[in-house]
């Protein structure tokens, strides 16, 4: 059964946000953990708002909530590593996607230091090591345009996907 839902200007902001979130629950997305490190310290968060922008120069974007615990460190360090999760990483995603203290998040796995100084999961499906080339304002979020400096690709493994407010394996 199809359910049409107009998002009216007469609706409250909370109603419009809820309608949008319900719609976005139908958009399946790869789950990643984005890490950073540097003078502003280590931080990381689970992210599905990660998309390719261009292959020239190799660039991806990450949408980061301005109110999140990782925000100050990501902005100040200016570098991130985007780790694309495999089916085995569900618990790690919960750690980095909940209100867990940063040391407990990183204690959930072994990490390797990347060239930029951020952190790579050795068994990520792929890890993109990036410097943040520019930032655009996206209301509650910043859109980080991340220039990819190195990729580390794992040839096997199954993907962890977030769909309908739950984890799926592809
Ligand atoms: C599956 C999933 C996807 C998420 N995607 C994003 C995202 O793309 N951008 C973002 O800023 N936060 C995203 N979050 C929330 C962050 O992981 C956030 O850091 C987390 O809720 C913990 O908040 P805190 O770091 O402020 O304690 C996502 C959370 C989950 C569980």
Mean pLDDT, rounded to whole units?
Answer: 97
DSSP strand content: 35-45%
Strand order of the largest sheet: 3-2-6-9-10-5-4
* CATH level 4 superfamily: Electron Transport, Fmn-binding Protein, Chain A
Give the helix tally: 4
Secondary-structure-based class equals: alpha+beta
Q: List the ligand species.
A: flavin mononucleotide
What is the count of structural domains? Answer: 1
Give the CATH topology.
Answer: Pnp Oxidase, Chain A
Main β-sheet, in a few words? 7 strands, antiparallel
Structure description:
It is a single chain. The strands form three sheets. Strands 3-2-6-9-10-5-4 form a seven-stranded antiparallel sheet. A three-stranded antiparallel sheet has the order 1-11-12, with no helix packed on it. It has one domain: Electron Transport, Fmn-binding Protein, Chain A (Pnp Oxidase, Chain A), CATH 2.30.110. Strand 4 (50-55) and strand 5 form a beta hairpin. The chain has helices at 13-24, 71-77, 90-97, 102-106; strands at residues 29-30, 32-36, 43-47, 50-55, 58-65, 79-84, 112-113, 119-120, 126-138, 141-153, 160-163, 166-169. With 170 residues, it is an alpha+beta fold. The radius of gyration is 17 Å and the shape is globular. The model has no long low-confidence stretch (mean pLDDT 97). The structure holds flavin mononucleotide.
């Amino acid at each position: 059964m199809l359910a049409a839902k107009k998002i009216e200007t007469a609706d409250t902001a909370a109603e419009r946000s809820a309608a949008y979130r319900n719609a976005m629950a139908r958009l399946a997305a790869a789950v990643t953990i984005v890490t950073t490190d540097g003078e502003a310290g280590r931080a990381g968060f689970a992210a599905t708002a990660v998309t390719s922008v261009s292959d020239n120069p190799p660039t991806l974007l990450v949408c980061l909530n301005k109110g999140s615990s990782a925000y100050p460190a990501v902005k100040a360090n200016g570098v991130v590593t985007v780790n694309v999760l495999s089916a085995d990483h569900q618990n790690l995603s919960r750690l980095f996607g909940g209100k867990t203290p940063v040391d407990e998040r990183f204690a959930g796995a072994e990490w390797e230091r990347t060239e930029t100084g951020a952190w790579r999961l050795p068994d990520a499906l792929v890890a993109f090591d990036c410097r943040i080339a520019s930032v655009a304002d996206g209301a509650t979020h910043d859109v980080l345009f991340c220039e990819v400096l190195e990729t580390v690709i794992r040839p096997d493994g199954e993907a962890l996907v977030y769909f309908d407010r739950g984890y799926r394996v592809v």
